[in-house]
Amino acid sequence: MPRVTHPSSPGLFPEGDTPRSRIAYETRRTTQRAAQAANRRRATPRWLRFLGRRATILAPLALVGGLVLWGWASGKLTAAGNAMNAAFLDVTSRGGLQIQEVLVKGRKETDGAQVLAALGVERGSPILGFDPHAARKQLEQIPWIANARIERRLPDTLYVVLTERQPIAIWQHEQKLALVDAEGTVLTDHNLDHFPNLPILVGDGAPKQGHTLLAALAAEPTIQARVDAAVLVGGRRWDLHLKGGTEVRLPELNFEAALHQLAALEASDKVLDRDVVAIDLRVPDRLVVQTSATAAAARADKGKRPPAKKN
């Protein structure tokens, strides 16, 4: 059979119109189209190709973002959110999720009315609208409360656990008395007669420095039992005023050793039971005792008396 040349493509297949030549032709065409497409991609910036591929996603997002920004700037979005939140809380409250009981654990000295005021709730309030974190911060502003923990126990109960501060002394400052804890926090200036056994700290800064002194006194109970007040002198050292009227002057440094020395002297010689006005412990390894004028006169009179005659 004679070979027929493709009428629309004369001379297209140099080797003749054979299956092999047609395959080679199509391969070249495919390669050329791929090269042209690659050239077009290289000519177009990558960010433009990225936007082009994602235009159907980014355009709606941009529209929604613009609407949200407009709503926020105009206040309409906030108002709508508040209205939705109020409606939600109203529905949950009518469904039984409302505060009916407040249980408080750990309250001894804190006023109950202060606790309720800090919580800021009323019976029947929506329990889901209550903010435990904000209420905890308000509770910890009350001087007696060191820390607080609050739980919402659905459907209708608030459970509050309080840790109260522990008073260690009564602070005398500018002719006023107040109860303080180990951190120097002033707890109250009312009902101080409820704490008759606490020592009195006197002077500026005495509450914050007093806990170290009181800890040292606790290690010497015979001295601690006699202390009526401790005065901070110059913000540096302490003078102890004992119940019998004796003044004990402690050194600025290592007053623990001085207190131990005084306790040992009391155990051996009962020095605090004598007619002593002051005991000075400010010089290391030395103890200076000042007696009263009466005791000094008695000793002088005793020295002037003639010795007793022997029979």
UniProtKB/TrEMBL annotation:
Domain POTRA: 97-165
Transmembrane helix in keyword set: yes
Record field: transmembrane: 55-73
Membrane topology field: Single-pass type II membrane protein
Free-text function comment from the UniProt entry: Essential cell division protein.
Intracellular or extracellular location(s): Cell inner membrane; Membrane
Coiled coil: none
InterPro entries registered for this protein in UniProt: Cell_div_FtsQ/DivIB_C, FtsQ, FtsQ_C_sf, POTRA, POTRA_FtsQ_type
Family the UniProt entry places it in: Belongs to the FtsQ/DivIB family. FtsQ subfamily.
GO cellular component terms given for this protein: cell division site; plasma membrane
UniProt key word ATP-binding: no
Residues spanning the signal sequence: none
Protein name as catalogued: Cell division protein FtsQ
UniProt organism field: Nitrospirillum iridis
Gene, per the UniProt record: ftsQ
Main location as per UniProt: membrane
UniProt keywords, alphabetically: Cell cycle, Cell division, Cell inner membrane, Cell membrane, Membrane, Transmembrane, Transmembrane helix
Pfam families tied to this protein: FtsQ_DivIB_C, POTRA_1
Chain residue ranges for the region called Disordered: 1-20
GO biological process terms held by the UniProt record: cell septum assembly; FtsZ-dependent cytokinesis
